[in-house]
Amino acid sequence: MASRNHKSFIFSLFCSAFMAVNASAVSIDLDLSNPTSSYGNSVYNYTAGDVNLSVSGFSYDRRGEIESDTVGNYGAGLGVEDGWSPEHAIDNGFNLSTFRFDYDMLLLSFDQAVSLDSITAGWRGTMLNLFQPSSRNSEASVLAYGGAGTPDNFVGSEWSDLLNDEWAGIGNYRIDNLNSPEAVNAGGMMSRYWLVGAYNPTLNLDNEAGTHFSAANDFWKLDSISVTVNPVPLPGSLLLFGTALVIFGSMRRKQAK
């Protein structure tokens, strides 16, 4: 009986240690609607919990290549301020002066790997010209960087080039309901770098099931996001786990004799 109780104790210790080491998923919400600002911000910085985030903006220039743009926030969320247009939303609008689409994207740069779990739109636009019908829905494309270290500078490239440079296409999503989180990244990919932008058909990403997507009518602002992080286990948890392994191994050796 004593032996059985001893084994039960060791098993309980092992399970407790394993659970302590793997007490991982911590969900964090980041409100991107504050602070508000005027035009011309190159980067927005946010902190929530133990996560630090920097947000910068990109879109297509007159040549149809990626350019760096400023980021604006006007109370309903973040948008990209296009270099050749006064628009300050995230959009894939058609520009009549260049006959090109914007394909705006925000680069979310975290100080640690996170799983981007949801995105929320705080504003949706309406018709701007004949080439951009009334925006009855809002659609987003999401990518994550799968390489080690920092991604290469993609200014001067096309968005589709990134899929050959260690960026992974996460998917296209409908974010019709304002101020309501839309789940993304069902596979739970972890990355320090994420691109979130208006629906971009040139990427050929998988569409959210049961939805229809169309280009050139998406104008929205990113109000908030939710991420999951996996914190490093506390030293005490690691010590407990190691102790349980040592005792368990000692018992196995005694049984072998």
TrEMBL record:
Annotated transmembrane regions: 232-251
Keyword Signal: yes
Keywords linked to the UniProt accession: Membrane, Signal, Transmembrane, Transmembrane helix
Signal peptide (residue range): 1-25
Superkingdom field: Bacteria
InterPro entries linked to this entry: Xrt_dep_XDP1
Keyword presence, Transmembrane: yes
Protein name: PEP-CTERM exosortase interaction domain protein
Natural source organism: Teredinibacter turnerae (strain ATCC 39867 / T7901)
